[in-house]
C-alpha cells in the first residue's frame, strides 16, 4: 500500500497542511559552493588546461589533447543515422511540432513616428551565442535537447554550443541525434561546473557565450548562479510537480498514471490530485496501489508519492481553481468536462493540459509547447522557456528638432527637480527650434 | 584640466586598453551580505516588529505603531497638489508619453487549432502584486517612480506596493507626486534590506509580492539577490554608462554636456566618445575643460571622467559600430548624419539615441522608452525594463481524441527511449482512437 497523504479542504488546519506539503527549501550546500568557486576560478585562469584536468578527474575521461573534447557534426549525423526508424521519426516529428509552436513566439521590431517627426520603437535582436548544458549518463534526455535548442534556433541565435559530460567516454546516441536534428553548431564533451565556467569565461577551445540554458545537477546549478550577471542564465529549476484537477469522471487509472509520470522523475517530485468526489479519490488510490507494482521505477514513485504527494478532496471545481492559483503549479491538468470554462479561472501555472485526453506526457515530448517550465510556485512571476529568452530588445529614440525642443524643456524641468544640472543643460542645448 | 584617457583604435594594445577601461567588478561585500542575511531572517521571523526596530535604527525614524509606516493615498494626492504648475505638468506629460510607449509592449494571449482539433497556445496574465523600491534621501528620483510603476500598471498588475525610506521622516514631494500620478496602490516608508524582506516574505502589515523592482544601494541589491527565486527581481544594475559615436559634425559643447550628464550620476559612471576626427576629440576636450567649472556636480563629473571616461579616435564609423557591439553599452548616442544607416549595424545596446538632437537626457525623463536599461555589457543578453517584465505566460495544450492518439504514440516512443515507463503508459492510455 502506498501511504499517500489524504486531505480535505474542509479540514480544520487545511491551509497549514497545504503549506507544509508545498514547502521545499532548495538547500544551498556550502561545500558544493566552495568547490564550485574553486573550479570556476581555475577555469577562468587556466582555461583548457583546467578543463582537461577536471574532465579527467570527474568524468574519468583521459583527454590527451584538447581537440578531443569536441565532437564533429559528422559524429552527430552518424548518431542520427544509427537510430531505428521509429525513434528517428518520433524525434523528428517532435522537433517539427516544437518548431511550429515556437515560431509563433518570435517578436518583431516595431516603431512609430509622432506628428513632429520623432521616432520611438524597439529593435529586437537574437543573442549572438548561447551555451546549452545537457546532463550526461542516466539523466541524458534527448527531449531536453529539443526543448532548449529549438527556441534558440528559432530566435536566430547564430551559434549554439552544447556541452555534455560523457563519463568514461559513454556517449548517448539519442542525445547526439537530437543535437543533429536541432542543428546544434558545436558540441563539447565536458560537464559540471567546469563546463559552465568554460562557457561563461571562454577558454582557448570553448567560446564564451552570452547565455547558458539547460538543466544540471547541484554543481551545475551553483555554477550558473555564480556566473549570472556575466552571462544570462535560464531559471534555476526546483523539483518537478503536477497538479491534477479532476471532476471524478476520468478513468481513475489514467489519473493514477499521470501522477506516476511526475513521481517517477525523482523522489522530490510532487504529484497532487484535487477532486470534489471522495469516491473517485478512493478509486484513484486503489489504482495507485494496483498499478505501482508494475512500474519499473516503483521505488522512486513510491518515495515521491509518500514524501510529497497528496489526494485532496475539495468542495467543488471552483475551489480547486483557487487552490491551483495558490500553488501556481508547474504542470496543471484540467481533467474535467468543459475545461475551457475552468481555464479562465487559472491565473498561475507553467502549462495547462486541458481535457481528459491531454496528459502531461504529451507536453513533455511532442505537443509543441516547451517542457522547461517554472517550478516551486515561480509561475506566479515567470514563464515557460521560449523564443523570448533568446531575443533581447533595444529601445530606439530619434527626436526631430521640433520634438527635441518640446521634450528638452520637459526633461530640463524634471532634471532640475532631481538636482542633475548636466542632464538639464544637455537637453536645453537641443531646444533650438 | 580634466585628465581623461585618450586612446586610438590603431594603438598597439588598444584591445587590452579597452578591456581595462570597461572592467568593472561588482564587489560582493561579505560584511554587507552577512548583515543582510541577518536582517532578512529577522523580518521573516518577527515581521512588523523587526521592521519597526530596523526603521528606528537605520532611518532614525520613531514608529510608535506599525500603521504609521503607511502613507495614505490622500497624502500622495496632496503632494501632487503641492507642486508648482510647471513641475506638475512636466511630470504628467512624461507619464503620458511613457504610458503611450509602453502600451505598445503589451503581449496578448494567442492560440491555434490544428486540423484534428488539437489546440495549442499561450495565455498571458499580469503579475498579481509587485513591490517597487524607491531610494530615499538624495537619490530619490521621481523619474524612477514613473519608469518602474507605469509598465507594471500597463501590464495590469492588480496591486503595486511602493517602499521608500524617509530618513528622519523627510518626505520627497516629487516622489510622492509621481506615485500619485502612477496610481501606486500602497506606499510604506521603509527602506533597506528590511523593506526587501517585508515585500518578499510579507509581514502583518506589508503584503507579500510576486516581484520586486527598482534601484537601491548595496544592501538593497544584496537583499534582492538573496530573495530571488522566492520572488522575481529585475536586473541588478551596475554603474550607468554612455557611449557616444560622433562623426565630428555635432557641436562639441553638446557632446561634452552629454558625457557630463552621465558622469554626474556618480564616480563609477562611464562616459566614452568614439570619433574618427582627432580635431573634434580635441574640441570636445576643450569644451570639457571650459564647461566643467560651471557644473554644480563638477567633483563627481571630474572623478567619473578621470576614472572611467575616454575619448577614442577610431578609423571610421564602421569601426565605431564594431566597438559599440563589443561594449554593448547601456546608452548609445549616434550623433551622426543619417543615423538610420548606422543603427542597423548595432546589435547590442540598451537604448539607442539617433541623431544630433537626441540626447540621452530626453530618454531619461520623457521620450517614452524606459530608462531602466541593462548595464555592464548585459545588453548582450537582456532588455530594457518593460511591460513584458510584469506579464507572464502559461502554455495551453488541449489534445483532441485524434490528436492524443497520434501524439501519444510519439510521446510513448520517446519516453521509452528515456527510460520513463509511466510517461509512456500515461500517453498510451489516451491512444484510444
Automatic annotation (TrEMBL), chains A, B:
Binding of substrate, residues: 240, 262, 265, 331, 364, 418, 423
Pathway(s): Amino-acid biosynthesis; L-histidine biosynthesis; L-histidine from 5-phospho-alpha-D-ribose 1-diphosphate: step 9/9
Assigned keywords, A-Z: Amino-acid biosynthesis, Histidine biosynthesis, Metal-binding, NAD, Oxidoreductase, Zinc
Catalytic activity: L-histidinol + 2 NAD(+) + H2O = L-histidine + 2 NADH + 3 H(+)
Residues reported to bind NAD(+): 133, 194, 217
EC number: 1.1.1.23
Molecular-function GO terms, alphabetical: histidinol dehydrogenase activity; NAD binding; zinc ion binding
Enzyme class: oxidoreductase
GO biological process: L-histidine biosynthetic process
Cofactor: how bound: Binds 1 zinc ion per subunit.
Residues at which Zn(2+) binds: 262, 265, 364, 423
GO CC, any one term: cytosol
Cofactors that this protein relies on: Zn(2+)
PROSITE patterns per UniProt: HISOL_DEHYDROGENASE (PS00611)
Organism superkingdom: Bacteria
Catalytic residue list: 330 (proton acceptor), 331 (proton acceptor)
Similarity field: Belongs to the histidinol dehydrogenase family.
NCBIfam families assigned to the protein according to its UniProt record, in alphabetical order: hisD
The protein's role, per its UniProt record: Catalyzes the sequential NAD-dependent oxidations of L-histidinol to L-histidinaldehyde and then to L-histidine.
Protein name: Histidinol dehydrogenase
Organism annotation: Nitrosomonas halophila
Organism taxonomic ancestry: Bacteria, Pseudomonadati, Pseudomonadota, Betaproteobacteria, Nitrosomonadales
Gene name for this UniProt entry: hisD
